[in-house]
Automatic annotation (TrEMBL):
EC code: 2.8.1.8
Cofactor details (free text): Binds 2 [4Fe-4S] clusters per subunit. One cluster is coordinated with 3 cysteines and an exchangeable S-adenosyl-L-methionine.
Organism: Coptis chinensis
Name of the protein this chain belongs to: Lipoyl synthase, mitochondrial
Gene Ontology molecular function, alphabetical: 4 iron, 4 sulfur cluster binding; lipoate synthase activity; metal ion binding
GO biological process assignments: protein lipoylation
Annotated pathway: Protein modification; protein lipoylation via endogenous pathway; protein N(6)-(lipoyl)lysine from octanoyl-[acyl-carrier-protein]: step 2/2
Residues annotated as binding [4Fe-4S] cluster 2: 99, 103, 106
Domain Radical SAM core: 82-303
């Protein structure tokens, strides 16, 4: 993801330095706003929820050469080249690179008081994107609990600026929960975006283990439900990580809860531990099981499900949106209604 404070071209740089020496000594991580928990990683040992599990080995289907470029994403070539559908997709991170929350699966740096947003970011982002010639943009951000509206207004200004310069571009906003502030959700939904996305991340039982205490399952469902209800035709989307210890029944329960509030698009991917300080991978889910979840999700009413070990919440976002529209158009043409 790229955070823009002025128009830029897509940058590249070398791989990050090795973390081997960093983890050769005990390390403590502070989870901003979380309960007082010791996350010390004692040189390779297992914590209650962290550390490497020597009994869980990375399988062959996840062993591939690390990608080059700033995003370090295994799917970056498909997004920028448009894959088989010719839809080029890019993901942009707004509101800086420092989060006010500390979810245990995420490696983004945290602070109670991040730098204030750049007031020129919406305009500069829109100008940069207009020059790239991409078809579909995903705007996302860190959590900004320090801002009165959680950053919703900044998102909305960016969408409006983008649509002004590139009226035909499709825009998805992958947002925080705005602390459950439904007015913040409303203002963003009415800014001109095409898809409202917010991730529930995991099944209900694992929420407090996986996410910051200020996040929550019911709060996320409330945000997604409101986005759907406050503007007719709004497409909603969410994502679930697998491999954190969830059961099949819990995944089905989460899917049922999402369909009950009419979420349209679901992505499911393998949780990959960023460092030994983060949540332990409990299971590497097989490609066949991901295929099962795709079929199951679509059978219960999701308009599209992307499910695979390397799928991420913004994976082939343009493809998902376009395929959904084409499918509905074909149904309309066939039925004539």
């Amino acid at each position: 993801m790229i955070s823009l404070t002025k128009p830029i071209t897509i940058p590249t740089h070398s791989k990050p330095k090795s973390l081997i020496h960093y983890y050769s000594r005990p390390t403590r991580i502070n989870i901003v706003g979380a309960e007082a928990v010791d996350y010390t990683y004692p040189g390779g040992g297992m914590g209650v929820h962290t550390g490497r599990d020597p009994n869980v080995k990375k399988p062959a289907w996840l062993r591939q050469k690390a990608p080059q470029g700033r995003a370090q994403c295994p799917n970056i070539g498909e997004c920028w080249n448009g894959g088989g559908d010719g839809i080029a997709t890019a993901t942009i991170m707004l509101l800086g690179d420092t989060c006010t929350r500390g979810c245990r699966f995420c490696a983004v740096k945290t602070s109670r008081n991040p730098s204030p947003p750049d007031p020129m970011e919406p305009e500069n982002t829109a100008k940069a994107i207009a020059s790239w010639g991409v078809d579909y943009i995903v705007l996302t951000s860190v959590d900004r609990d320090d801002l009165p509206d959680g950053g919703s207004g900044h998102f909305a200004c960016t969408v409006e600026a983008m649509k002004s310069l590139s009226p035909d571009i499709m825009v998805e906003c992958l947002t925080s929960d705005f602390r459950g502030d439904l007015n913040a959700v409303t203002s963003l939904v009415h800014s001109g975006l095409d898809v409202f996305a917010h991730n529930v991340e995991t099944v209900k039982r694992l929420q407090r283990i996986v996410r910051d205490p200020r996040a929550g399952y019911e709060q996320s469902l409330s945000v997604l439900k409101h986005a759907k209800l406050c503007k007719e035709g709004m497409i909603t989307k969410t994502s679930i990580m697998l491999g954190l210890g969830e059961s099949d029944e819990e995944v089905k329960e989460a899917m049922a809860d999402l369909r009950a509030i009419d979420v349209d698009i679901l992505t499911l991917g393998q949780y990959l531990q960023p460092t030994p300080l983060h949540l332990t991978v409990k299971e590497y889910v097989t490609p066949e099981k991901f295929t099962f979840w795709k079929d199951y999700g679509e059978s219960i009413g999701f308009r599209y499900v992307a499910s695979g070990p390397l799928v991420r919440s913004s994976y082939r976002a343009g493809e998902l949106f376009v395929k959904t529209m084409v499918r509905e158009k074909n149904i309309f043409s066939t039925t004539g209604s």
